[in-house]
Amino acid sequence: MAVRVVVAGNTREETEAWRCRFARVVPGIEFMAWGDDDTGPDADYAIVWKPPREFFPRQPGLKAVFNLGAGVDSLMAMPGLPPDLPVVRLEDAGMARQMVQYVLHGLAEVSRGFDQYAAHQRAGRWAPLEGIAYHEWPVGVMGLGMLGSEVAQAIAQAGYPVAGWSRSQRQIAGVDTFSGEEGLEQLLARTRVLVNILPLTPDTENLLNHRNLAKLLPGAYVINVARGAHVVDEDLLALIDAGHLQGALLDVFRHEPLPADHPYWRHPRVRVTPHVAAATLEDETVKQIAQKIQALERGQAITGVVARGRGY
Ligand code: NAP
Ligand code: GLV
To answer: pTM higher than 0.85, yes or no?
Structure first.
């Protein structure tokens, strides 16, 4: 019997678009769009991004669910998700190079003074700043997984001193690595530009709070490309307004879209982008998930399965 895969995106249009992409390039597998009349309860696999609440109770036969993103926080929080259903996240799939580009852009903006040149241009002012002293811009990367390890290495290659922090101790060429609670203290104390690429779990929620952000070097800058709930917004804003932090580049927010009245929108030292640091790319994503479904059907093990106890 043909393998049946149900696709459920955030909207009807998204669902159909992903279903078509998979159906176009993967032979021998039937791809159904969640919500169609003929979507029975007998799918073998699911491919989802923020599916509706009733999704899992109505798909009791799933062998695995594939997340159309790297972060599985919203999926793990779904009440109907069966506790023993394997959850598979995207592994890079073209996101690392986007993340590298985004972070290097933010880092260059603050360390080379491009933000100041934008203000100078508005004032019609020709005013070269002093050349950069790279050793004065130590960077700290929180999260050294698929994306964070690539970002940390790219920062090192760009000539900045870089340290990284993860749950288990990692070895990455050109990067000073730390782990655990003590390691976090050490990382924060030496960091002028903090880059957050952690997964959102009960252990990492609200980690960027007043206590931790206050440990950064004076005049530090925060780049958050992970999840909004890592940051205590009031604490970040208070430390910027008090002058301890120079500012922040934020791609992700506790509530998305960022509410129209949120102070981030109008704060002169906060840059906002609409959760675009690393998009889910079609070709890489379809290829990666299709190969994993085919491997599972052959009885082979796959990578990228979320450890439920850890939450990522
Ligand atoms: P990953 O491969 O799972 O890596 C996670 C890293 O965080 C690992 O190094 C892990 O440590 C570390 N970590 C987890 N919990 C920790 C804790 N309690 N203390 C210290 N370190 C901890 O994840 P990824 O693929 O790099 O993605 C990271 C996150 O980026 C995603 O979860 C998602 O939220 C976000 N993201 C955002 C966008 C965007 O467009 N803004 C796009 C894609 C992803 P170990 O190495 O010891 O396991
Ligand atoms: C996007 O935020 C992702 O987790 O892939």
So the answer is: yes
The tens digit of pLDDT for each residue in 274-309 reads 999 999 999 999 999 999 999 999 999 999 999 999
- Out of 92, 95, 196, give the residue to mutate to test ligand 2, the one with the largest number of ligand atoms within 8 Å of its CB: 95
Q: What is the pLDDT of residues 73-82, one digit of tens each?
A: 999 999 899 9
Q: Answer yes or no: are the C-beta atoms of 216 and 194 closer than 8 Å.
A: yes
Residue type, 254: R
The structure tokens listed for 248 are 């922040």
The three-state secondary structure class of 224 is strand
Residue in 280, 284, 306 to alter for ligand 2 test, most ligand atoms within 8 A of Cβ: 280
227 is catalytic: yes
CA distance 282 to 88: 17
What DSSP element (H or E) covers 188?
helix 180-189
CA distance 268 to 266: 6
- Asked if 164 and 148 touch (Cβ cutoff 8 Å), the reply is yes
